[in-house]
Amino acid sequence: MKGQPETIRLIGAGLNGPLLAIFLARRGFRVEIYERRPDMRRVRLSAGRSINLALSTRGIHGLTKAGLWSAMQNIIIPMKGRMIHSVSGELSFQPYGKDATEVIYSISRAELNMALISAAEAEGVQFHFERRQRHAYRKDHHAHHHPDQEVAEAYQRSEPPGMRFVCHGGSPAAAPQHGRQRGQHHRCHHRDPHPEE
């Protein structure tokens, strides 16, 4: 990329955000990630939705491309299948694959997440923890995002060029547009997956 690298800001430092950031950084983009929670490498956090994940072909492929799969070997546990308990009390084994070579792997969600964050940082990705996405504006095909009121107020004073906004939650998606006039400000509401109590 020639000149000043374009900035892409991602919302969420879960499993998808840092992995996507790694590949974007390798393509020459300047990447920043905003995360509502504290840095989980320094603060003990709840396990959340699950303690362990089951990795299969797609997850392994992504980690391999990112250069992390070999480093995960000491924390994964192969799972060959499941044990079926019948009503009569009999047990039967149901393999996950066609043969013994096809298995899925159990891995700690937290350990994987921390490894992805560290790997993204090593690629030059900048993390902003304890910052929540409130809303975003689009102007002249550039997206400007505001993690909190302080940044929202700063936006009124300056309009940083060359910036992209990416909402993601499961898979990346472009910020939705509202209105059709060129140069009009568009507001994007980002659904908070962890609403306040």
Secondary-structure element order, as H and E? Answer: EHEEHEEEEHEEEHEEE
Which parts are unreliable, with pLDDT below 50 for 5 consecutive residues or more? 146-161, 167-197
Q: Could you say what the CATH architecture of one domain is? A: 3-Layer(bba) Sandwich
How far the N terminus sits from the C terminus, by CA atoms, comes to 44 Å
Described by the principal axes of the CA atoms, the overall outline is elongated
Can you summarize this structure?
The protein is an alpha/beta fold and 197 residues long. It has four helices and 13 strands. Helices cover 22% and strands 30% of the residues.
Note the topology.
Elements: E1 7-11, H1 16-26, E2 30-35, E3 52-55, H2 57-66, E4 77-79, E5 81-85, E6 91-95, E7 104-108, H3 109-122, E8 126-129, E9 135-139, E10 142-146, H4 149-157, E11 163-168, E12 172-174, E13 186-189
Parallel strand pairs: 1-2, 1-11, 2-8
Antiparallel strand pairs: 3-7, 4-7, 5-6, 9-10, 9-13, 11-12
Helix pairs in contact: 1-3
Could you explain the architecture of this structure?
With 197 residues, this protein is α/β, with parallel strands linked by helices. 22% of the residues lie in helices and 30% in strands. It is built from four helices and 13 strands. It has helices at residues 16-26, 57-66, 109-122, 149-157, and strands spanning 7-11, 30-35, 52-55, 77-79, 81-85, 91-95, 104-108, 126-129, 135-139, 142-146, 163-168, 172-174, 186-189. 22% of the residues are buried. Residues 146-161 and 167-197 have low confidence and may be disordered.
